Amino acid sequence: MSELKARIKELASQIAPEVVSFRRHLHTNPELSFQEFNTAEYVEKALCSFGLEPTRMAETGLVAYIRGNNPDRRIIALRADMDALPIQEQNDVPYKSVNQGVMHACGHDVHTASLLGVAAILNNIKDSIEGTVKLVFQPGEERIPGGASLMIKEGVLENPSVESIIGQHVMPLIEVGKVGFRSGMYMASSDEIYLTVKGKGGHGAMPDQVIDPVLITSHIIVALQQVVSRNADPKTPSVLSFGKVVANGATNVIPDEVKVEGTFRTLNEQWRARAKELITRIAKGTAEAMGASCEIEILHGFPYLENNPELTDRAKLGAQEYLGPDNVVDLDLWMAAEDFAFYSQHIDACFYRLGVRNESKGITSPVHTPTFDVDEKALEVGSGLMAWLAVRELRSEGGN
Predict the structure, then answer these.
(1) Global confidence as pTM
(2) Which of 9, 145, 204, 355 could form a disulfide with 174 if both were Cys (CB 3.0 to 4.6 A apart)?
(3) Can you list the domains of the chain with their CATH numbers?
(4) 269 catalytically annotated
C-alpha cells in the first residue's frame, strides 16, 4: 500500500494544475441550485475525456464509475456538490464570477473540481482498486429539498447497491494542508420557518383602533425562545433563530401584517418533530390571545448528519497516513446543515473537512460571504486524499 499511496500523491501533484483550472472555470461560471445545466455539461465532458461514461440523474446530477479488480466485491461512493449561492462576489481575482449575483461562496467548485481530480487519479490506477467507486456529482445542496434526497429517490445508492459514502467540504477555519474529522453526530438538521402575523393596521397615532401585528410579532418571537430554553433536553444541541422580519409600515403607519422567517436546527429527530409542533402551537396561540392570527409554514429540511464511527475512524487513520498525524484535526459539533445528511440516514457515511485557510494570503473569509476564497493548494490535497481514502476503504474489510 505504501507504493500505491506514493503513486496517488505523484498523480495528485501532476494533475493539480488541471484541477485548479477545473475549479477556476466552475468559480467563474457558477449556477444556482437545480440550475446547474452548464456545470453538469462541463463535468460530463471532463469525465468523458478521462474515458468514463457518466449518466445523468436528478436532471443536473451525474454519476460515473471507476471499476477495478473484482468490481462487484465492494462498491463505495464519493460525493461532490455543484451548486452556487445567490451572492454577489467581491473578490478581485482572475476567476471572479461573471454571473451577476451568483457565486461559489461555499466551496462547491472546490468539491467538484477535486472529485474530477479523484476520477482522473483512480482511472489511472484502476487495476490497483479492489472493487468499484461510484462518483456522485450532486445538484442542489443549498436548497430544500436538497439534491441528495432527489438522487436517493432516483436510486443513486442502488443498482448496484452502495455500501458506504465519503464526502468532503471546505473549512476556512482550518489551515490549508490539514483536514478535520468527527465521529458520530456532526451536523444539525435544518427546517425553515415562515410566519405571517395578521392583525388590523391603521394610523400610528390611534393604536386603540388597530390590532398591532408588529407588537404581536415581537411577543411571538420572544415566546418562541422557550421552545429551546424550557423544552429541549439541555444535552441536545438546538438552535431557533429568526433572521428576517418584514412589517412594511412607516413611522406613523401600523401595517396589517408582518412576515417572519427563521430556522430551527437540532441533532435529534424525535425532538425535532416535537419542537415544530411547539413552534406552531405557541405562535398561533400567542397571536390569537392578542386578537390576531398567525399563519405558519415549516419546510421540512435536511436531517442531522451522522458520521459512521467505524468508517470515520478508518478514514481518519487513512488521512493520518497520507498527510501525517499533525495535519489531521478533531472537529466539534457544527450546527450548520448539509444535505449529505440524507446519505448518512441510509448507509454508512463519512463527511470530513478540507482546510483552505491561508492567513499570509489573506484567505480567511467564512463561507457564504462575498469575499470567500480558498488557497488552491487545497485542491491537490482534496483530490489525492479522497482517492487514497477510496482505495484504502475498498481494501479494508469495511462493514463486512
Answers:
(1) 0.94
(2) 355
(3) 2-185+304-395 (3.40.630.10), 190-302 (3.30.70.360)
(4) no
